[in-house]
Amino acid sequence: MAVHVKKNDTVEIIAGDHKGATGRVLRVIPQKNLVVVQGLNIAKKHVRPSRKNPQGGRVNIEQPIHISNVLPVHTKSSRGGRVGYKVTKDGRKKRVFADGTEI
Questions:
Q1: What is the average pLDDT across 69-77?
Q2: Which partner for 36 in 22, 27, 45, 73 could form a disulfide, CB atoms 3.0-4.6 Å apart?
Q3: Is the pLDDT of residue 65 over 60?
Q4: Is residue 80 one of the residues assigned to a domain?
Q5: What is the Cα–Cα distance from 84 to 101, expressed in whole angstroms?
Q6: CATH label of the domain that carries residue 17
Q7: pLDDT at site 66
Q8: What is the structure's pLDDT at 1?
Q9: Do residues 85 and 4 lie in contact, with contact meaning Cβ atoms separated by under 8 Å?
Q10: Which residues lie across from 47 on neighbouring strands?
Q11: What are phi and psi of 7, to 5 degrees?
């Protein structure tokens, strides 16, 4: 599957428990078609006391979401939009929304 989002893109969730929410992409895992979105799909992880975390306890971490459930947010409408690719005159590939505006 083509990766239509990149790190630091603002995306909208289009399916699942967080449908309609927006957030910033922290990490893209293209081998597994997953993205990690800041502040969404949070799970509790129990950690042992360590030097880094001497108290131990429960820590909130963001879990990955399948890449097909997110769309980049369009700047004009503030909604998620489908992405296509356009080759420029100098041979570089650019991501563009369906209406032709660049991301």
A1: 87
A2: 27
A3: yes
A4: no
A5: 10
A6: 2.30.30.30
A7: 94
A8: 57
A9: no
A10: 57
A11: -60, 140
Residue with tokens 């630091």: 8
Residue 85 lies in a domain: no
Host domain of residue 59: 10-75
Residue 92 lies in a domain: no
> What is the per-residue pLDDT for 2?
67
Interatomic CA distance for residues 86 and 57, integer angstroms: 49
**Is the predicted pLDDT of residue 40 greater than 80, yes or no?**
yes
Considering its fold, how many domains does the chain have in total?
1
Centre a 10 Å sphere on the Cβ of residue 80 and count the other Cβ atoms it contains. 19
Q: Which of 40, 51, 101 is nearest to 76 (CA)?
A: 101
- Has residue 85 got a pLDDT over 90? no
* Burial class (CB within 10 angstroms; exposed 0-12, middle 13-18, buried 19+) of 35: buried
Q: How far is CA 40 from the centre of its chain?
A: 10
The verdict on residue 84 lying in a domain is no
Q: What's the chain's average pLDDT?
A: 89
* Selection from 36, 26, 34, 39 nearest residue 3 by Cα: 34
3-state SS, residue 65: strand
